[in-house]
Amino acid sequence: MLETLLCGLSLLLRVLPRWNPDLAMLLKDVSYVAVIRTKGAARGRTFKVHNGRVTSHGGIAAGAEVVVEFESARVGIRLMMPPTDWLAFVSAGKRFQVTVAGDDILACRFMQTVNAVQHIAWLAGTDCQDGTVRYTTQTNGGPCFVYVKEGRIIRITPIDLSDDDGESWVIRARGREFRPPRKATVSPHALNFKSMVYSPKRLLYPLKRVDFDAKGERNPQNRGSSGYVRISWDEALDIVAGEIKRVKSDYGASAITFNHPSHHTWGNIGYWISALTRFANAVGHTKIHHNPDSWEGWYWGAMHHWGNSLRLGVGEPYGTVEDLLKEAEMLVFWSSDPEATNGLYGGQEGTVRRLWLRELGIPLVHIDPFFNHTAAFLGGKWIAPRPGTDTALALSIAYVWITESLYDKHFVEQRCYGFDVWRDYILGVSDSVPKTPEWQSTETGVDAATVRALARQWGNKKTYLGAGGMGNAFGGAGRSPTGQQWARSMVCLIAMQGLGKPGVNLGNLQWSTPVDHSFWFPGYAEGGMSGDLANTAAALELYQRMPHLVSMNSVTAPPIPRLRLPEAIQGESVSGQLRDGRSIEGQFTSPRYPGLGHSSVRLMYKYGGSNFSTMPQSNRYAQMYRSANLEFVVNQSIWMEGDAKFADVILPACSPLERWDISEWANANGFMPHLYTQVNHRMITLQHKCIEPLGESKSDYDIFLAVAQRLGLGMYFSEGMTELDWVKRMFDASDLPSITTWRRFLKKGYAVVPAPEEGLRTSVAYRWFYEGRRKDVPEPHPLPSEYKKEWNQGLQTPRGKFEFECQTLKRFAPDDEERPPILKYVRSWEGHQSARTQEYPLQLITPHPRFSFHTQGDGKSAYVNELEEHRVWVNGYHYLILRMNAQDALERAIKRNELVLVHNDRGAVLCAVRPTHRLRPGVVHGYESSAQYDPIGVPGESPDRGGSLNLLSSKRTQIKNAHSMASSACLVQVRKWTPQDEETWCSGAAARPDGRREVKQSFADVAR
Amino acid sequence: MDKWTLLFDVERCNGCSNCVIATRDEYADNRHIGYAEPMPAGASWFDVRCTERGSYPAVDIAYRVATCQHCDDPPCAKPVPGAVRKRSDGIVVIDPVKARGARSIVDACPYGAVHWNEELQLPQHWNFDAHLLDSGWNQTRGAQACPTGALTVRKISDSTLQALCRDDGWAELRPELKSQPRVYYKNLHRVYSIFIAGTVVMETEGSEDVVEGAIVRLLDAKGMEAASGITDGFGDFRFDGLTTDLTTACTLDIAGPIASGSRRAAARVSIRDSAHVGKIMLGATSMGAI
Predict the structure, then answer these.
(1) A-interface mutation test, from B19, B25, B26, B141, most A Cβ less than 10 A away
(2) Each residue of A13-71: pLDDT tens digit?
(3) How far apart are CA A197 and CA A135, in angstroms?
(4) Among A408, A403, A454, which Cα is nearest to A428's?
(5) Strands, E, within A540-607: which ranges?
(6) ipTM field
(7) What is the DSSP string of A155-189?
(8) Residue A981: pLDDT band by 50, 70, 90 thresholds?
(9) CB 3.0–4.6 Å: which of A525, A531, B86, B174 could bond A551 by disulfide?
(10) Quick check: B24 and A355 CB within 8 A?
(11) With contact defined as beta carbons under 8 Å apart, do A199 and A861 qualify?
């Protein structure tokens, strides 16, 4: 029987390559002999691969380069009989009932070849007329069709749903019916992809820094300044693998770290919480522990009032779209600009729903120092507090509610704890300062009369509070120096009004559409192919559904808190509180790096987007890279931008349009459950390999595999599979086969999950809590042990209630003045009253960008650079826009599109000015996350004209008891850029043979 | 015969610029033989322009599409006979071969919608994605990429178009040119007109409060009522769709509700651009000038 199977395999290998291009490709340019046999070589067969052809004979040839060995014929038959039983396969592998020996590169190739035999009649994409093929892709901003002709991408379009796609939902509210359009609305940066693929900034070949020699002078001090020379993949991989081996032998695996951003290009296999994690675990590394970056305020602040630790402190989102449309009489957007980012990954799906607000005539209020895009689009009352003072405004609203009895007393008495203590603070009983509307106006700059009017309307109407970009989370003031106060004030206000009462909740229509919540497809944080049960959510569901090898990082040393990475690399001992969602108290633990008996980091594997524009006070990163402590830096990137030019070796990754992947739109399960409820139709996409990788670039998966093979880890990393095999494996594991077939999915490129019947929709968030019932929303949170009395009853807090006085904070640090047990207004350490305003009088706010997804889509000659609201072309360069109140601009005699230096003692950035009335006086605005970091002189010590405004933000954590960033607001001065500046910063460039420029002044001198 | 018509509603546009990017995607580095040579970087045949009106804290942001208007009587067709064609389906196409070298075509467009391609010595414009419509598409790239329906294209008869203008408020960008465009806009007042906004307050027992329900009348130089409205829950009023004829010499006459003790106020206003005229205190004895 085994012989028959092997004979059949040999027949297929001989015949199929003609019709199976995957197979033909795997057989190309390689010659080797492989045998498949039973243990003791009793039975088996030999396969000779040569010149793209396979010949085979019974019996076992001696000296085969690859030997696949089954414990017995029975095991062999079980594992080889299609369709593959992955559980049996993985189990047999773990028990050494099947082994693959020999050269790792050839072993992987042979196993991939055997797998590819199953790729029969796998046709990807839909043929159009005129020789164009329509493929599908998925991005951080929604799914798209990709039209390819003669190997070139012609166009990228949004997907209009067809009649045979799953049906849409309908919401009936106030006598009207609301239906989403039958299309996938996408973000500008999704439609931008062709220009990103063919960008002149693409890395097409492996590169080595000209003055780096792994066996001689490494010249780390020249990182960021020196040029590069093209090298072969073999040389690049040998250097990288050689350095990994050397560093592990000399220092141990703790001397290696992987530095990746929070996001990556979309796709469950190629994502960082997938292929990278499996690779990094296989190598071993000191983890860089991520702060809850865009969710800071909720994690470190709001969580103590209401729990939700496995949601980063963010509340349930369920059913609020429908409830808001049916019940709400007012909607207050507070530091909430969903039209800028459309939540997170949401395309423009929320936009079409927010148009319904206008149809229903629901009154809107926007609280933001910037007249943001949501206010501009929807209209309503604009209230502009000074950045960092929102809490004062919130407290005075509570003051009006308390003094005029405009809050839900029943709810506060029955479902909340510690209100009296907070009330006494608000009324001034405990500190003699009543938090009146007049009191707040000196802090916020907002008229007392306006606040009273807002408080009275809010207290008299069923009001939704849209806080942050997601309506109950994300971005906005939560990323500022006073972020945790702000998020605390948001939840305290909504609690006073009766959280969960019909028409009273957090939300801005950005998520919780009535889509199917039970259909399972893994989100990106469910681990992909990582096999990491400890640091991803693979254990939740994916691991059971898609059996695969487990991976685990063996380095037990404490992690580096991400925001302290530059200091850690430069030799400081650093610590930071953990992001550990198991419990509320998980955030109190603060390990210290480096660990006892463990080496500090010597080798950095950098992957993906830029630190310079996304991490605070980021000139620190130039110092980090130029430190001799970093013996080796490898950067794996798609584009030559940001951190890439600080590497010793650069590995060119291809774009997602040049590799296979599979994913669901906006599904971040494992990180944030049900984030896909931002979209109007759940759409799962096959991310086609639309074109071949450009130049010599390779997919991240193939790069990791190639390095792994040089470490003998290729079979472990890949399980003998190609990227496409993993895609198929994930398809089979998911619920997709219940609504489509693999071949149909591969051809069409997407599947729509039908909306559930109306009766099967989720209940509304916190309605159960408001009504005093058991929890009845579909989230398996918090962990069972977090319930203090009975499972599924009450909140996660110690009292099981909404705690105005947070018992967790009271136990941990009752006297913490920055974060006291009750919410108090604490002035910003970088606000309009801080001492720094003497030199830096303007408040710079840097929200998430509108037209790019962080660095993705920005720079690199992409289309969005030409949008007049994104960048401005001045003297041959696309400068980032700095928006400035028109009066402030007039006082400085600065006109539209003039270049200015935005600066403080941390750095200086060149921008083009846009005078506007959309900002209150004293505030300037520019988007964070420039893709470009272009210092005009010495990196880290000269102005950047790329627009990395995070050079100016503070590295200081929001509060000392939180590993949090405060990067969305800082103090700066702005002045015109002059020819003298050019001279000051750039002189000497030509004089020095190494091209480095002299620094004649420091950032601190600029102001004087 | 029905003709392709582009309809753009200022009120529904959120400024996402998907239409701009989609159109650039269609023409950048793509050659559509017989229709268009590639669009170079820096040119924007199809653009969205932002208009900001008002002064802190009353601001209005509006976007409008700026592109070829596909005139039924195209001024750009006059300089070089045969180089610019008005198709029977309403689309104006600049022939990428016959128009080569003819810079006069750029100059002839009163909308500034024809762009000079220096490298190819070619006048270029957005040709309504004619190559796509001819190959079976039923909409343009911009319309397909628009999330809100602010931008739509329809193939309609002249009489349907006239009905849309008459009954539904669609209008030309610049009727004075009499070029009979096939691009129509709605709610253009948010681009071209002036608004006057303000906040009505009053003082009671030493504290200031906004006044809801105050009747605000806008009077012209002759004292005739040009508009009227009622303040909202924040004491705010706004008169939009105004011209300088009125805004440079007008008066706000405000009557508080009975609950305010029927207090009144008046203010003279003279502005040339949209503005928030500030807080107006009821019960002020003399007329303030703003």
Answers:
(1) B25
(2) 999 998 888 899 999 999 999 999 999 878 999 999 998 999 999 999 999 999 999 99
(3) 15
(4) A403
(5) 560-561, 574-575, 592-593, 603-607
(6) 0.97
(7) EEEEPBPPTTSPPPP-EEETTEEE---SB----HH
(8) confident
(9) A531
(10) no
(11) yes
